[in-house]
Write a sequence for this structure.
């Protein structure tokens, strides 16, 4: 009697061919599935994030805006699906992340400057390279406070500025911002918003911004990604293409008002569903 | 971390605050700053009155001035100093051994939750068992020796340290770990750059209670385990011969030791864990 040794225990399920996004796509999300406590948050979710653009994510409470960027940034494991950056996996991609709660994002045991240098040291850069990059960052952020102080000695806005500098230090391909202004007062919000816009105009880093403030979401965005209630799907993607630098005048321009109005309508439709 | 380029431009705000702290301001003498002294002075006066009016038998309570004089002469080169030093030595030795083993082990256990849950019950159980209840057991193992007193104090201090260090790591701010992870730190880097530092503050709380625990056990052990020296021995010895002056002086010396150790650790904690509570 003949026996098959090490025969196949199961047959491979046919793998769906990869569907690339349109030209200029940076991040492709395919078949993303995430369950929370047995309930689907995302199910077979597909999304293309364009390269060199700012995408603002807006949607009802609990629809998983932060969860979405956390999954893309690899902070929350996904149940199924694939996320690629220019065809590469996260492991081969440099990313930066700015948290809402800056107090628990910086490391208080090190001076602020060492916090900013940390990602560079993780990359194994030499002291000279680190110093050069730090000098560049200090110049481009026009830092007016003492970076040799410990983070807890700085104001909230200064700490968040330092967080953004830290996130940008390794020249990331993608910058994730999770409600970066929510813990700041209005004055600091305006200041950091302008800084972000400046940095974006210099570097054209792809950015994903989660925001609960519609005005701020539209103001910074090239695209506004509107999500539905859970299980979360894409409700709409609005393009907003006013030229940069955008200013206070932008806030009263017809195209801004139109985009904001439309976003609000879609948002309200989703909330009432 | 290595030094960094200095920042020549300072914000006006910082300068202002520096000026405020640097300036010498002559303030009128504040009587309120003497308040902490009031308690001890009152106690001294009441003690003295109680003895003077004979409310307590003189054999049970010596006059406070005599007691303090005994304490001072004993501590300034007398034989009380010798007992004091022996107790201090045993306490620090036990604490040192407990720290050297407990701190690395606690941090290691804390960073591996599965490992910790497998020994959690043991640690909690023995932490809740009064260490003094184990003295007879340690007598059996180590015999009536000097090592015995140090061993049991080490055991008590060790459990406190391992528990606090492990919980310090377990309760590290998740977001700081996430921040390091997103910057590409590997497990070892997250451990040495985030978890270790996060655990320092709760660890210090552990170290402080551990040194107190070590002192308590050392003194108890000195009383009951055929000891020839140490404050515990001195206290029980004085009690046996009803030399209450020496007994009280020794008790106060033990108090001074415990209090000083506590203050010292608070000071160290503020220096090392400079971000604590901010």
């Amino acid at each position: 009697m003949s026996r098959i040794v090490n025969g196949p225990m199961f047959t491979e399920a046919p793998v769906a061919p990869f569907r690339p996004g349109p030209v200029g796509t940076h991040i492709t999300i395919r078949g993303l599935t995430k369950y929370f406590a047995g309930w689907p948050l995302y199910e077979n979710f597909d999304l293309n994030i364009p390269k060199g653009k700012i995408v603002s994510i807006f949607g009802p409470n609990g629809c998983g805006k932060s969860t979405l960027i956390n999954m893309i940034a690899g902070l929350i494991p996904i149940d199924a699906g694939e996320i690629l950056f220019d065809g590469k996996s996260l492991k081969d991609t440099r990313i930066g992340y700015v948290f809402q709660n800056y107090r628990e994002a910086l490391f208080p045991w090190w001076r602020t400057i060492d916090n900013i240098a940390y990602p560079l040291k993780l990359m194994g850069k030499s002291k000279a390279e680190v110093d050069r990059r730090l000098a560049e960052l200090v110049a481009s952020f026009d830092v007016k406070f003492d970076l040799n102080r410990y983070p807890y000695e700085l104001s909230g806005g200064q700490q968040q500025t330092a967080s953004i500098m830290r996130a940008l230090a390794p020249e990331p391909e993608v910058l994730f911002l999770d409600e970066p202004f929510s813990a700041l007062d209005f004055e600091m919000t305006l200041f950091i918003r302008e800084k972000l816009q400046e940095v974006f105009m210099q570097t054209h880093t792809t950015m994903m911004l989660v925001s609960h403030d519609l005005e701020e979401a539209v103001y910074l965005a090239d695209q506004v990604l509107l999500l539905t209630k859970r299980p979360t799907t894409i409700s709409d993607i609005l393009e907003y293409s006013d030229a940069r630098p955008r200013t206070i005048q932008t806030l009263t321009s017809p195209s801004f008002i139109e985009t904001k109005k439309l976003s609000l309508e879609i948002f309200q439709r989703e909330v009432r569903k | 971390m290595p030094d960094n380029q200095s920042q020549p431009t300072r914000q006006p705000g910082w300068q202002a605050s520096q000026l405020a702290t640097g300036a010498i301001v002559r303030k009128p003498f504040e009587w309120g700053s003497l308040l902490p002294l009031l308690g001890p002075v009152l106690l001294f006066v009441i003690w003295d009155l109680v003895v003077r009016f004979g409310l307590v038998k003189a054999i049970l309570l010596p006059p406070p001035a005599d007691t303090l004089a005994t304490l001072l002469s004993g501590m300034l080169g007398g034989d009380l100093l010798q007992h004091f030093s022996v107790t201090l030595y045993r306490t620090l030795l036990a604490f040192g051994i407990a720290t050297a083993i407990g701190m690395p082990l606690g941090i290691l256990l804390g960073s591996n939750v599965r490992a910790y849950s497998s020994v959690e019950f043991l640690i909690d159980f023995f932490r809740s068992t009064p260490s003094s209840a184990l003295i007879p057991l340690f007598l059996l193992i180590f015999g009536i020796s000097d090592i015995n007193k140090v061993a049991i104090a080490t055991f008590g201090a060790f459990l406190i340290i391992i528990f606090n260090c492990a919980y310090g790591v377990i309760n590290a701010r998740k977001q700081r770990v996430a921040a390091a992870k997103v910057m590409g730190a590997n497990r070892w880097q997250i451990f040495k750059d985030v978890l270790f530092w996060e655990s320092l503050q709760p660890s210090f709380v552990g170290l402080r209670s551990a040194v107190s625990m070590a002192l308590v056990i050392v003194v108890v052990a000195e009383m009951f385990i055929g000891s020839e020296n140490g404050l515990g021995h001195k206290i029980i010895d004085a009690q046996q011969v009803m030399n209450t002056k020496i007994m009280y002086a020794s008790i106060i010396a033990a108090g001074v030791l415990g209090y000083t150790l506590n203050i010292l650790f608070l000071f160290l904690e503020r220096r090392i864990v400079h971000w604590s509570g901010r």
Notes: Chain B touches chain A through 29 residues (CB under 8 Å). Confidence is low (pLDDT under 50) at residues 1-22 of chain B. DSSP finds eleven helices and no strands in chain B. The domain at 77-272 of chain B is CATH 1.10.3720.10 (MetI-like fold).
